[in-house]
Amino acid sequence: MRRHRTAAGILLTVGTLLAGALSAATAHAAPAPTPTAFTQQHTKGFWTAERMRGATPLDLLPRERRSTLAAPAPAGTPTVIPPTLPTGTASGASVLSFPQPGGPWTSGGAVVKTSGRVFFTLQGRTASCSGNSVTSQNGSTVITAGHCVKYQGTWHTNWVFVPGYDNGQAPYGQWSASQTFSTPQWVAREDINYDVGAAVVAPLNGKTLAATVGAQGLNFNGGYNKPMYAFGFPAAAPYDGSRLIHCSGNSSRDFLFSQDHSLGCNMTGGSSGGPWFTSFDEATGTGLQASVNSFGYVFLPNRMFGSYFGNDAKAVYDKAQVA
Questions:
Q1: Beta strand 125-134 with 245-250: parallel, antiparallel or unpaired?
Q2: 261 with 227: CB under 8 angstroms?
Q3: Do the beta carbons of residue 284 and residue 109 sit within 8 Å?
Q4: Buried-exposed string 253-292: b where 16+ CB fall within 10 A, e elsewhere
Q5: Phi, psi (degrees; rounded to nearest 5) at 288
Q6: What is the pTM of this model?
Q7: Cα distance between residue 101 and residue 247, in whole Å
Q8: How large a percentage of the chain has pLDDT more than 70?
Q9: pLDDT in tens, 4-39
Q10: How far apart are CA 47 and CA 158, in angstroms?
């Protein structure tokens, strides 16, 4: 994402959600409504290496701020889902500095396979985000941002997940989504507090996604103010989408217009939807996904905001993992 390109470029370009374009709706502890889903449409062989390299980060258009008040803290039962990784997963080769404002991930481990780029078509153009394979009943679930599956009343099509993306190459294959999901709040009004999406991908070569690249754990209703690691494939300058980038540090809660997590990070467009982990082990590259790259304020450079995984995010995950 180009952080300052539009008043609100939700991190498709990591965060250029504008200063005045946040919709911060009131969070609630009521039972989560049923998430909305979309049956995907695909053009066979559409995503060539050239198209993947040329896909641009999705920029969101400015919107009116619906509230100037920070949303109250979400409430819900803490839930931890452990990772499921293939046997023989290699440990990382090095330990990196903490905190890290943004740089290539060089420590190896499971995250280099579970995370990847997301590609899709929207309103006649090709675009990109990031995503992550997570533990699920179907072994085929990817978590990303809500705006990486639907935007301005239109569901993205030709949606594929490319784990371990490497400069136009798909070392573990292209995984086509059969269904994509998001929260009702994002689908109805693009409420930034609920910018969470998911996809169920079809098996490839007779194997599920999790059996092929592994799957990270999840943490819902885990609270705020803890060490976090964020990953993604930013494609706007100074990055080019060719490799996995990460940030790390002690997170805090947005004190302005959302209920999101906040982390010092210079990732740009295309990193939207990339995973944030708690309890992350640099040596093994495993952790519990507790957020996704969502947006950034134009007046707060080098700071990213990630959606809080509360009851509504869990409802999206629960719907996807059994689809």
A1: unpaired
A2: no
A3: yes
A4: bbebbbbbbbbbbbbbbbbbbbbbbbbbbbebbbbbbbbb
A5: -110, 115
A6: 0.85
A7: 5
A8: 81
A9: 333 234 444 333 332 222 333 333 344 555 458 888
A10: 8
